[in-house]
Amino acid sequence: MISRRGALICGGVGAVVAAGGAGYAIATGDKPEPPAPPSVDAHGRLLWRNWSGIQKAYPAARLAPKDDAELASALKAAQAPIRPVGAGHSFTALAPTDGTLVSLDALSGVVGWEGDEAIVRAGTRLGALGPMLAEKGRALPNLPDINKQSLGGALGTGTHGTGAAIRAIHGDVTALRLVAPSGRVIDADAARNPEIFQAARVSLGTLGVITQVRIKTSANRRLRRRVWLEPFEEALAQAEARWAQHRNFEFYAVPFTGLAANISHDETDDPVQARGPDQDAEVLRALRALRNLLGFATPLRKAAGHALLSTAKPETAVDEGWKLLSTERPVRFNEMEFHLPVENQLKALAEVVRVIEKERPDVFFPIETRRIAPDDAWLSPFQGGPRGSVAVHAYYRDDFSFLYELIEPIFRRYDGRPHWGKLHSLNGSQLAAIYPRWKDFLAVRQDLDPEGRMLNPYLRGLLGLT
Prior knowledge:
Blueprint: H1 11-18, H2 20-29, E1 48-49, E2 56-57, E3 61-63, H3 68-77, E4 82-85, E5 100-103, E6 110-114, E7 117-121, H4 126-134, E8 138-139, H5 151-157, E9 173-179, E10 185-189, H6 194-200, E11 209-216, E12 218-219, E13 222-231, H7 232-245, E14 248-254, E15 259-268, H8 280-294, H9 298-309, E16 315-320, H10 321-324, E17 333-341, H11 342-359, E18 367-372, E19 387-395, H12 402-413, E20 417-418, H13 428-432, H14 438-448, H15 457-463
Parallel strand pairs: 3-5, 4-5
Antiparallel strand pairs: 1-2, 6-7, 7-11, 8-12, 9-10, 9-11, 13-15, 13-16, 14-15, 14-18, 17-19, 17-20, 18-19
Helix pairs in contact: 1-8, 2-8, 6-14, 8-9, 11-12
Organism: Caulobacter vibrioides OR37
Pfam families: ALO, FAD_binding_4
GO molecular function, one term: FAD binding
């Protein structure tokens, strides 16, 4: 499958990657591979590391329960901090612990249905859930940009896709089961334990371990996926109309090219038109080659980048939504993403692009821009109104301190809320000012975990409990 960023591929990209000059630039312009930490520490504990490599831990114990009862019994005696972990795709230090790491990989699959709502175990990976639901003719209404996450991890961090009328994944959860660190098993929905339900739908794994959810599904429709390139200024001018027009719409500003890639998905009854081969890695190698070769001269780099990509022809694919909405990500990166009031989103994006092109010639990843419908979960970034997201990436070998120094101040000035799984520096007092139900959440958390056994040092600082 062609990924979203792979949609930028055109015939000339392969030529750039293959060219001797670009190949030499890639070989000489990149920083070396970051050193890997020891696979075992001095106490014989095995390494855990997140996908991008910036978070690590050596847990004293690891749990992989096969059912709720086993988990409940184990949590009572587990060494703190207790941290649930999914696929390790968060960039913040949510999972690291020198206590107990809990994997829900054994708690996976669709275990029942209530009408069109599926009952799904929280360890289920999103990429596996699509075909499971499709067997019943159903689908999740939306999917995020990447589908390697576990369902529990996606809920814990407020993971989302794009679509002005479509909520993040947690917005379609109608019931959940939570195992508190005391071993108490709690079923919650809007009627039973409603405050726990509102707190737990986005809770960063700080209340206990969610093991199961009931979630709304939609008919498994075919979608028509269109990808096209145009000048960045035109993409900015048309974005609002396109969010109103399309079921799903997003676009990527490609720095140092003057271009943007637009991607839309709309329901269709047309026959399947398969996607081409996945070339995501090739386009990123080409953009990296341009950076390494021409990064010293921004006007020349922009001219070459524009020439390289502007001849790309529009692409179309038709297939079931779960096959089109998510993407493969073979190239690692670190990421900062904030969710902004819709009236501020495009202004913030334009400023981010200007700052990067002025201050950071090392950046080459496209900048992702999406729209998300509101929901009412207490710590949902989309609580209280729709939000528009802007995500900035740094190659995993490159310095990403500029995200804090240059990009985060822009997002904060435009009233952004951080993605819980992406890099940011906000703490408890700052977050309390932008989340109206912050104190309510902390009260539920204190009731379920009065000893703070679910909190690692990062989470204590994040929640303002240090």
